[in-house]
Amino acid sequence: MTTKDIVLDHVSIRFGSYTAVDNAHLTIRGGEFFSFLGPSGCGKTTLLRCVSGFSEPTEGRVLIGGSDMKGVGPNKRPTALIFQNLALFPLMSVADNIAFPLEVRGISKKQRRKRADELLDMIALPGVGDKKVHELSGGQRQRVAIARALAVEPDILLLDEPLSALDLKLRHHMRTELRAIQQRVGLTFIYITHDQGEALTMSDRVAVMNSGVIEQIGDPESIYNRPKTSFVASFVGETNAIEGKVVLQAGEIVTLETPVGHLQGKAAGGRRYKNGDPCYLFIRPEQLEVKSGLEAPNTIAASVVKEEFEGSARILFLKANGIDMRITRVNRGASDALANGQALVCAFDPDHATVLPHGPLAGA
Amino acid sequence: MNKGTGGGAIAAGYSLLFFAFLFGPLIIMVITAFNSSSFPRITPWECFTTEWFDELFGNERLMAGLVNSVIIGVGVVAISVPVGLAGALALSEVGPKVRAALYTVLITPILIPGVVLGISTIVFWGGLGRSVGADYGSIFFDGMFLTLAGQVTFIAAYAMLVFLARLQRFDPTLTEAALDLGATPGQAFRKILLPFLSPAIGSAAFLTLLASFENYNTTVFTILSGNTFTTTLASKVRHGTDPSLSALAVIIIAVTLIGAMVHEAHTRRAEVMRTGQAARSKVYGNPVLSVLAHPVMVLVLLVAMGGGLAYKASQHDARACKQQILDDKRALQEKLLEEQRERIRAQKAATPAPAAPSSGPAPSSFGGAFNPGSLAPGSAPAPAAPATPKTPSGFGGAFAPGSLKPN
Ligand SMILES: Nc1ncnc2c1ncn2[C@@H]1O[C@H](COP(=O)(O)OP(=O)(O)O)[C@@H](O)[C@H]1O
Ligand SMILES: [Mg+2]
C-alpha cells in the first residue's frame, strides 16, 4: 500500500502575507482514515485543496505515491474531492452524475450506466439513477457524491466537512456509514472536520490544527488522553483548565501552585519543567469526583452553580475561587442531586490530570 | 378586489384607463391597416382591404432593407454572443480590483450615445482603410460591414450583462468538481458551464437580434448610402405615412403575440414538469390536451391560424367597394358643384356686373370646392356660407387637395 502514501513535505501556503498553512510535515499511509481536525478558518480546506491540486504550496512539496505533484492538475491526480457543498451537477440525473468521471474518459454510454448502477447498489440506493439530484434527501445526496467520487476508483478520497449540512441524527448515522465504506473499498480517506466527535469516532489518526499549524498528530486515544499542547487539550473534548506555576517536579508528577491550591498532574511527554514555569493543569470532567467534606491532597474546594441533567449523565457546574469548572457524573438512577450553592470538594488522580506549558486555549 | 378600502371602482377605472393608454394606439393602428382610406385612420371607414399589405411587400426599398437588417442581425448575434460570453467569463475570473476596471471598460459602449459610436466607427475604419491603402470599394467603406462593426461594439455589452447575471448564480465549485473528477478544462466548460448558461445564450441571442434590428442612431451613419429596415422606415415616416406602416405593425404585433404565447406555453410546461405535477394536472395529465399544450404544437396552431386568416383576407376583393366609394365621392362633388353654380347664378341675378370678379376661380372644372379657403367659415364669399355646415360631417377632409392622389 505504500504506493498510495501521501507525503506533505514542509508544506506552507500563504495568501500574500497571511500564512494559511504553516510548515505541515507528515505522512499519510495508504488505506488510512486520516482526519484534520481544527476550528473554522484554521486552514483545513486550504490544505486539502493543495492536496487535490487546486492550489500549489507556496513552500514545500506534496508527494503522492512517491512522486512530486507539482504542476499536476486536479484532473490528473489520483485524488477525488468531496466538496463541503457536495457540488453535485444539478442539471444531470443521479446516474449521469455518478458516471461523469467515466463520461469524460470516453467510456461508452452502456458501460457508464452499468457502472453507475453498480455504485448505486453499493451505496444502497438502487433504482434512483433516473431521478434528478434535487429529488434526493440530504443523506442520499451525500452518498451519491461519494459514489461519484469512487466511480473511477481513485487512490485517495478527500472529504471536506461532508456531514456538516446534515441534521444530527443523520450525521451520526453517516459516520458509521463512511467508516464502513472506507473499510470496504480500502482507500485512503483524508477527512476534514471541525467536529471532534467525527474525527475521534472515524479516524485511524487525527491531526489537530490551529491557525495553520498542525499541533499534534496521533490516534484518537492519544489525542484525547495525552494532548501535547494546551490548544489540543482544550479543543478536543471537554476539559477543565486551571492556570498555575510549577513549584515542584518529582519524576513525571508536577506540582503546580494555582488559585485553588497546590495541585498535581502528569507532565505530558516526559517534559521537564523549571520552578516558576507558567503552566495549565487539564482535568477531564469525567475524571473529577465529588468528595463531600474531606480535605485531602489534590482536592479543590468549590460551590455548586447549577446541575444539568442529560439523561445518561449529570453535568455539575462549579465555581472554585473564581474558576469555572464542570464535572460529569454518570447517572446511576439514585437521586443524588446537589443543591445550588452547596459547598463541596472534588478530587482527582494526578495520573489523569495533564500539565502542559502555558499556551492558547481553544475558543479563548 | 379589496372592497374594504373602497377603492374597487376607482381601481377598476384606473386599470381600464391604464390599459386603454397602453393598448389603445395599437388597436387603432391595427384597424387602420385594413381601411382602404389612403391616410391611416378609422373614421370614415371606407372599405375593408388588405391592399396595404401588398403595398408593404411591394415596397422594394423596404424589402431590400429588411434583407440587410436580417443579414446584419444574424452577424451581430453570431459575434456579440460569443464576445459577450467571453467578457462575462473574464469578469468572473479576475480579482475584484481588475474586475471593477474591466467592467467599466466593457460597459462604456452602452453609455456612449449611438450617434457618437456611429460616427467614430466610420472614422476609425475609414482611417484604417486609408492607412492600408484600401480603395472605396473595400470592406472599410462597406455600409454592411461598418454597421456590423458599429453595432457589435455596444450590443456585445448587452449580451455580456445577460451572461453576467446568469454567471452570478453559478456555483464555481461545480467546475472544480468536474476538474477533480478528471474532466479537462474544455470538458468542464462544455459539459457543466455551457448547459447552465444555455438559457442565457438564448436570451442573449434574442436580445442582441432585437437590438441590432431596431437600432437607428448608429446604423443611420454606418450604413452609409445603403439602408436597413429601420432606416428605410424612418425616412418613409418622414416623407408622409400611409397605412402600409399599420400593416407592418399588424405583422409585428402578430409575431410578438405568437411568440409570447409559445413562450408562455413553454414556461408553464417546464414548471409543471420541474415540480413533477404533470400527472395530477388537468391539462398535462390528459394525453390529448398535453400534446395540444406543447409549445411546438401551440406554435404550429397559431401560425396555421394566422396563415389561414391571411390567405382568406388576401382573397378579399375590395375593388367593388372602392369603386362605390369613388362613385359616392364623385356624386357628392357633382352635388356640391351644382350647388355652387346655383349660388353663383343667384348672386349674378342679385348683384349684376361688379360681383362677378370675386368668384374668379370658379371656371376650373371643380369650381371653388377645392379651394381650401372657400370652406373656412366666414371667409370672403359670404354666400358660400350655406355650404360650410356640410364639411365637418361625412367625409371630413376627403376633399383636401392631394388626398385622392395615391388612389
Ligand atoms: N484564496 C484565498 N485568499 C486569501 N485568503 C484565503 C483564501 N482561501 C482561504 N483564505 C484564508 O485562509 C484561512 C483558512 O481558510 P480555510 O482553509 O478555508 O479554513 P477552514 O479550516 O475553515 O477550511 C482563512 O482565514 C481564509 O480567510
Ligand atoms: Mg473549510
Automatic annotation (TrEMBL), chain A:
Keywords, in A-Z order: ATP-binding, Nucleotide-binding, Transport
GO molecular function, one term: ATP binding
Similarity comment: family membership: Belongs to the ABC transporter superfamily.
Keyword field contains Nucleotide-binding: yes
One cellular-component annotation, GO: ATP-binding cassette (ABC) transporter complex
Superkingdom: Bacteria
Protein name, UniProt field: Spermidine/putrescine transport system ATP-binding protein
Gene Ontology biological process terms, A to Z: quaternary ammonium group transport
From TrEMBL, chain B:
Record carries keyword Membrane: yes
Biased composition (Low complexity): 349-393
Membrane-spanning segments: 12-34, 62-89, 101-125, 145-165, 192-213, 245-262, 283-311
Signal peptide, first to last residue: none
Keyword line: Cell membrane, Membrane, Transmembrane, Transmembrane helix, Transport
Domain ABC transmembrane type-1: 66-263
Region (Disordered): 344-407
One GO term (biological process): transmembrane transport
Annotated PROSITE patterns: ABC_TM1
Gene3D superfamilies: MetI-like (1.10.3720.10)
Location in or out of the cell: Cell membrane
Membrane topology annotation: Multi-pass membrane protein
GO terms under cellular component: plasma membrane
One protein family per Pfam: BPD_transp_1
UniProt main location, coarse: membrane
Highest rank taxon of the organism: Bacteria
SUPFAM superfamilies in the cross-refs: MetI-like
UniProt similarity note: Belongs to the binding-protein-dependent transport system permease family. CysTW subfamily.
Protein known as: Spermidine/putrescine transport system permease protein
Taxonomic source organism: Roseibium suaedae
Native organism taxonomy: Bacteria, Pseudomonadati, Pseudomonadota, Alphaproteobacteria, Hyphomicrobiales
